[in-house]
Amino acid sequence: MSDHSAAIEDFLLERRTFPPPRAFRDAAAVSDRSLYEAADADWEGFWAAQARELVDWYEPWTSVCEWDLPFATWFAGAKLNVSYNCLDRHVEAGQGDRVAFFWEGEPGDRRVITYSDLLDEVCRFANVLKGLGVERGDRVAIYMPMIPELPVAMLACARIGAPHSIVFGGFSSEALAGRIQDARAEVLVTADGGWRRGTISGLKPNADAACAECPTIRHVVVVRRTGQEVAMVDGRDLWWHDLMGGAATECAPERMDSEDLLYLLYTSGTTAKPKGIMHTTGGYLTQIAFTHKYVFDLKAESDVYWCAADIGWVTGHSYIVYGPLANGATGVMYEGTPDFPDRDRWWEIIERYRVSILYTAPTAIRTFMKWGSELPAKHDLSSLRLLGSVGEPINPEAWVWYHENIGGGRCPVVDTWWQTETGSILISPLPGVTTLKPGSATFPLPGVGAEVVDDHGNRVEKGGGYLCLTRPWPAMLRGIYGDPERYRQTYWSRFEGRYFAGDGAKVDDDGYLWLLGRVDDVMNVSGHRISTTEVESALVDHPAVAEAAVVGAQDPTTGQAIVAYVTLKASEVASEERGEELRTHVASVIGPIARPRTVIFTDELPKTRSGKIMRRLLADVANGRSLGDTTTLADPSVVEEIRSRASGGSADEE
Ligand code: PRX
Fold first, then answer.
1. Less Cβ crowding at N or C end of the chain, within 10 Å?
2. Which residues form ligand 1's pocket by a CB distance below 6 Å?
3. 527: pLDDT confidence band, cut at 50, 70 and 90?
């Protein structure tokens, strides 16, 4: 955890605390400790009450939580439909004209989509899927840009009970193929391309390359977004608009079981094979509706809420689509990058739609800091009343900049900790209740059991250790698709009876939690999880590479950056071009987000006498730290050589 000493130093420098502003507290959905008290008194009863209040059920449950560690059943026997909860019930309640999404494409095209519009589209696409032979339980893969058809496809899947598996549009064809194969998906929904920084991404060609490796795919549905020329395979590929034109706008929602699979979402772990995280229906919807309502203090009738993540990540699943729509919120959805056509695009969007709640990642905030506070200052951001942060530890400097320059000093900042696996925010302030400390995610939310433990699993009352969750929660993952043993091993074996999140954390004198980043072989680059092993295996997959070791190095903008130490095969020569080629190779195998920032060539990697690569030493070098214990090194001169190369000319920086 020594990687994070900088975060701790920062936190020592920033000692201000921020109680809820009076006006905010007076209008907040919750401004006292009642939710915490109710949950402390009876956590199962608390979740049952939330489930009754926030979700519509066709049939009630017979038990709230059955816990056969590590397998949980929430709301056993209860029946519901997520798309009914996100759409029909609002329309039935007379809210059909409320805007569900203000959508904006990167080139400047705009669409306003009401709840009625969305319901119509979802029913139509649900009928399209049925027409293609998709049945309850069949998996549908989705590989799309940030266009309205993406939530339509998700909700259509939920309507007919077909779990979706969304693959982030920035992933490569190989990554897409691996995920389709693991899920054995039968239909893929994609687009010709999408807009990013003024250029067109080629989604369909990637989809075609992936499908060549995926015999389970029967049909590919293609949205025309950019209008670029794409190849269509006869009999397999179908245009979205052709299918939707003939589809009926009525489609009865399936009565799903509370524990039916809602979606799979693949995430990196400590091996090269991504894990298919399983999320189910009733518990998930309950907890994301709860957290979306209380963490963001949502006033559905007046707020304009913008979560600026991509739907391809869990943040978008839970807090662009399912949580906000379940609560009848009005959201903003934006297709492109923050610097197109100019670096104030976000502030322009906030001004245009009068956005009141903004939820984004520290890496974006640090980028905006670099671009300068004059850009947000040019716009009227007075509609904002609450700010959120997610994805990685937020350094206090970025927190304070966000608070002052975006929030005008008046908006609470909720730093929300959670994971793909947790499905829902678990550690966060409640903005009308909690006194904030910049850089701290503060406390577990009501109903959540979290604690910091030492190496032996003993609870740490004050100081550093490992973050664990002590009891099941409704939106928790139900497992890793097809691999229950890996599920047990990864999360439930390190500390008995507890879920190990893989994060280091620290408890301060007042009991506040400070998240310190990953303690395993997972890097966090711009809030995205990438495993060192995944990048290493992409590198050794290149014919010139003999061996590779990858570590995360601190980076002022992206949090961590990928540094690769590479030994070439004897016949190969290290050069700048070779370094560039390897970086490109990794980007094409995994996706541009995994492109190493730096490639350092070395004749040998530091190893123990038993042959294990000492990544810890490589991380010390990458982070410019003094070296830790080197006594177990087989050949101590290797590290010195790498150190001189790392600071010398062969590093290849962007
Ligand atoms: O290390 C933690 C970090 O992101 C990891 C989860 O990544 P992912 O599954 O991709 O989900 C990201 C969005 C929910 C965590 O293990 N992380 C997430 N939020 C925070 C955070 N670290 C510190 N503070 C946060 N608020």
1. C
2. 267, 314-315, 390-393, 415-420, 441, 501-503, 515, 517-518, 524, 529
3. confident
